[in-house]
């Protein structure tokens, strides 16, 4: 039995308090994907304050209220009073405490947000950008794909027309890759896939089904995507159908991506070792944080599986993903290789747009890696008050 002790070496800055901010914003129009329509965006921001008053920020992905409550009831105890730099110790104490009952779920989302805030704090206290703490960015900017083209409650021909206009805006803004939603119904899905390809013959396109299909449907859809030169097919199947993922992948050439609903290296191990994915998409605000994201990436790398983080919250989570991705090892690496596209959510989200004093620059489809300490972003206090 290993016991963890407080380190008495090094920086002695301790965590003074954790505050959570549950933010909500109603959307102008419902935002649909294969499972339901969002009518609001809601998430928890985590503010960790050190003894000297320095604050670090993180966010949680997934249902907001349970994550907020889990921070208060389950995680806070293990963090307040601890050394800010002891992110591994803190992670393992929380993991060990809830191993019997909560290896997956809101407690892990809560820990993810707190871990992210601690990494931001470590950067601010040392004056180093997160990418430096993570081992050094190989690039100054990261290629992004625009996530959009959600379903709207419209007649389908109108929806397809609107989707084409939306994609045109992303192309106009400089994006070289766009991810669309499928999984509405097979007729519509095929139409939208083909319409996008016909309108944008040279654009890199990906399609996200949010686990809408049976194995047979996913096979059929995968062939439609292949015929139209799509780059990856995201969450074709239910996240627990690992054997079906492996079967599907063995019959298709289009890359299979999944993992936004998975957590920890142990969850990702099952997803990866069954052989059903080419690309995993851990969300650093959900998978166990930056600390666990690094382990998931090392695991994936050993299996030759690519990693590109899922990010669907505010600029805080996007900044974490950006630093994390900029430090990605080449897989497999070559002179003229480029990083895999990083997700840049462009769907309606007033929280994402307003919660930072200054949004992260995305220029010509590339996100510029911040060089200021920590995540390199500042929270807009007025927006915090407005959305609570
Ligand atoms: Mg997705």
Number of strands: 13
Contiguous uncertain segments of 5+ residues: 6-10
Helix content: 25-40%
Write down the CATH class of the largest domain: Alpha Beta
- Give the biggest sheet: 10 strands, mixed
Global shape: globular
In short:
By secondary structure, the protein is an alpha/beta fold. Helix content is about 40%, strand content about 20%. The protein folds into two domains: about 15-125, Enolase-like, domain 1 (2-Layer Sandwich), CATH 3.30.390.10; about 130-385, TIM Barrel (Alpha-Beta Barrel), CATH 3.20.20.
Give a structural overview:
The protein has about 400 residues and is α/β, with parallel strands linked by helices. The protein has two domains: about 15-125, Enolase-like, domain 1, CATH 3.30.390; about 130-385, Enolase-like C-terminal domain (TIM Barrel). It is about 40% helix and about 20% strand. The chain contains 13 helices and 13 strands. Strands 4, 5, 6, 7, 8, 9, 10, 11, 12 and 13 form a ten-stranded mixed β-sheet that branches. The longest helix is centred in the N-terminal third of the chain and has 21 residues, at about 105-125. Bound molecules: magnesium ion. The site of magnesium ion (MG) has 5 residues, from loops.
